[in-house]
């Protein structure tokens, strides 16, 4: 693309388009992508960047994967979309079958929606409708730990961390929910009985109004990249059962291998009542999410002629389901635990030298997630161009610089990402 065209497009972008969490009057820079393949983007100005982000957890097999491309070409010639009310099709049915086979055995019923946030809305509605069907219409609120992130729509926002989620700005519009402390950090840190006591006391006080407890299993993602001991999940399951509260796992970020298991749930010994998946579901090709639940919830809602009150226009979109089927076939063709364990070793060796820098407070890795926590927040206006100059695509937030590369990344590329992080931390704070 010639320079004039690049300039024209970049200028229009700045004038017309809102990007995630940015200002229209003082936007951070946005780089024009022309092509992407494997673990690399090619910018319109000719530069090539190694991708450290999987485009926010989603592009797990790399960009322009031949198998997913081919499946989509085929489906587009058959049909791209038909309404899901009254009609069905093979891509959706096959995807349902795959999801039920992959997820914990008790999860048997699948609801497709357009995005992660919507799948969370659906999960919350399922919980409320379930209790309604059981003659408990007062159970319409949710308990959740602080530092969580569940999406940007209103009900999802109501269960996000109140500070990160800016609840003060929306205080008249958001349903007040019941917050507990975030699980103490450290994947191997012994359980803190006081933490479980806090949850027990909260449940004891509020259970008559609580439909569910929603949590990201093992890793709290956008709320701070916090890793916690999976044994808390076993204890929380028991408390939920004791107080008649449904357990909802948000696996939108952690699902499909990211934490070293196919689902983060598998680090524990229990199963949730409802699970949300999204992000990597289509290999990062097209937006699609699913809310998967057990017979108890699905049949409870459907008791005595009940129907579940949700039905998005693009529910079960055939192209999205086709991309997901091709992506899940790839996931199953890898030995995912071995592959992701290898990436964890590479991330640990690439990132641990950062600990020698004064501004680095912690380095932690779990599966294909590597986190460098700084003592000060970064300035995106300043740091983003520094990463691009180093030939890498890394997008920090706050005090966190983190990597979650596509699973097809090579050790040499992770080493380059690690070197870039060290150099950029020094340049940014110099
Ligand atoms: C990204 C994310 C969501 C929201 O998904 P969208 O597709 O962006 O709506 C919800 N929960 C978790 C844990 C996420 O990481």
Automatic annotation (TrEMBL):
Enzyme class: transferase
Protein name (record): Adenosylmethionine-8-amino-7-oxononanoate aminotransferase
Gene that encodes the chain: bioA
Organism lineage: Bacteria, Pseudomonadati, Pseudomonadota, Gammaproteobacteria, Oceanospirillales
Modified-residue entries (N6-(pyridoxal phosphate)lysine), positions: 279
Native organism: Marinomonas aquimarina
HAMAP family from the UniProt entry: BioA (MF_00834)
Pfam families in alphabetical order: Aminotran_3
Domain of life: Bacteria
Catalysed reaction equations from the record: (8S)-8-amino-7-oxononanoate + S-adenosyl-L-methionine = S-adenosyl-4-methylsulfanyl-2-oxobutanoate + (7R,8S)-7,8-diammoniononanoate
Its job: Catalyzes the transfer of the alpha-amino group from S-adenosyl-L-methionine (SAM) to 7-keto-8-aminopelargonic acid (KAPA) to form 7,8-diaminopelargonic acid (DAPA). It is the only aminotransferase known to utilize SAM as an amino donor.
Participates in the substrate recognition with KAPA and in a stacking interaction with the adenine ring of SAM (site feature) positions: 21
Any one GO BP annotation for this protein: biotin biosynthetic process
């Amino acid at each position: 693309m010639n320079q004039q065209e690049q300039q024209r497009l970049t200028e229009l972008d700045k004038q017309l388009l809102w990007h995630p969490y940015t200002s229209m009057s003082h936007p951070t820079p946005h780089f024009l992508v022309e092509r992407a393949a494997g673990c690399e983007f090619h910018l319109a100005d000719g530069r090539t960047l190694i991708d450290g982000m999987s485009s926010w957890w989603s592009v797990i097999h790399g960009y322009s994967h031949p198998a997913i491309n081919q499946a989509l070409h085929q489906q587009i010639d058959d049909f791209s979309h038909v309404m899901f009310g009254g009609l069905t099709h093979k891509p959706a049915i096959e995807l349902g079958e795959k999801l039920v086979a992959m997820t914990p055995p008790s999860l048997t019923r699948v609801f497709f929606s357009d995005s992660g946030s919507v799948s969370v809305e659906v999960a919350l509605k399922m919980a409320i409708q379930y209790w309604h069907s059981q003659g408990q219409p007062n159970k319409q609120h949710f308990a959740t730990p602080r530092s969580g992130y569940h999406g940007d729509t209103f009900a999802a926002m109501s269960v996000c961390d109140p500070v990160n989620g800016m609840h003060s700005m929306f205080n008249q519009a958001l349903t007040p929910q019941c917050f507990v402390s975030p699980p103490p950090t450290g994947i191997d840190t012994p359980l803190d009985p006081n933490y479980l006591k806090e949850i027990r006391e909260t449940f004891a006080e509020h259970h008559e109004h609580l439909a569910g407890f929603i949590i990201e299993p093992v890793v709290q993602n956008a709320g701070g990249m916090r890793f916690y001991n999976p044994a808390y999940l076993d204890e929380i399951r028991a408390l939920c059962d004791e107080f008649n509260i449904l357990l909802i796992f948000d696996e939108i970020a952690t699902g499909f291998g990211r934490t070293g298991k196919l689902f983060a749930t598998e680090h524990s010994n229990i199963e949730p009542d409802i699970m949300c998946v999204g992000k990597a579901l289509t290999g990062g090709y097209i937006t699609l999410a699913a809310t998967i639940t057990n017979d108890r919830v699905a049949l409870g809602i459907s008791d005595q002629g009940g129907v579940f009150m949700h039905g998005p226009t693009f529910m079960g979109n055939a192209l999205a389901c086709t991309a997901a089927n091709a992506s899940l076939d790839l996931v199953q063709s890898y030995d995912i635990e071995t592959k992701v364990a290898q990436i964890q070793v590479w991330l640990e060796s690439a990132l641990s030298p950062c600990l020698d820098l004064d501004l680095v407070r912690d380095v932690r890795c779990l599966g294909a997630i590597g986190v460098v926590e700084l003592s000060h927040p970064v300035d995106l206006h300043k740091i983003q161009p520094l990463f691009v100059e180093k030939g890498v695509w890394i997008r920090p937030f706050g005090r966190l610089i983190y990597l979650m590369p596509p699973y097809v990344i090579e050790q040499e590329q992770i080493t380059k990402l690690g070197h870039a992080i060290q150099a950029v931390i020094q340049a940014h704070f110099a």
